[in-house]
Design goal:
Layout (H helix, E strand, L loop, with lengths): L2 E3 L1 H13 L4 H8 L5 E4 H9 L6 H8 L3 E3 L3 H16 L6 H12 L3 E3 L3 H4 L7 E2 L2
Parallel strand pairs: 1-2, 1-4, 2-3, 4-5
Length: about 130
């Protein structure tokens, strides 16, 4: 159905493009040419925080290649469910990563990230490294 790219993937891909090198993000994209890639509203927000994404036109350029998955009632509920579960087990992950995971589960998508260790704490979430 598609894959959600974590913020660290977008940043890595952008650095590779600026340096004109075919690195690990480029290799991942090349190996998954028939896949559709998305980012979440959370990833778009994280990208907006970066100095390299200011001014707004630069941020829009970073986001433009990907459909942005919005928040929804289902995503909010999944966030709460995951929060309770992970907190009860002493495995709570970062807030933004929790939003990304909730969005992925609701949309039945995997997450592509360099932060596999944290995302793998989420039951049922497909996590792919790059």
């Amino acid at each position: 159905m598609g894959l959600i790219l974590d913020t660290n993937f977008i940043i890595t891909a952008e650095r590779e493009a600026k340096r004109r090198i075919a690195g690990r993000a480029d290799a991942f994209l090349g190996a998954h040419v028939h896949e559709r890639f998305y980012i979440t509203f959370t990833v778009a927000g994280e990208l907006a925080c970066g100095k390299s994404a200011a001014p707004r036109a630069q941020w829009e350029r970073l986001c433009r290649p990907y459909a942005i998955l919005p928040w929804s009632i289902e995503v909010c509920w999944q966030y709460g469910e995951l929060y309770r579960l992970l907190a009860a087990n002493g495995n709570l992950i970062g807030t933004n990563d929790l939003w990304i995971a909730a969005t992925a589960l609701v949309n039945q998508m995997g997450v592509v990230t360099a932060n596999q260790k944290e995302f793998q704490l989420v039951p049922g979430l497909q996590v792919m490294g790059y």
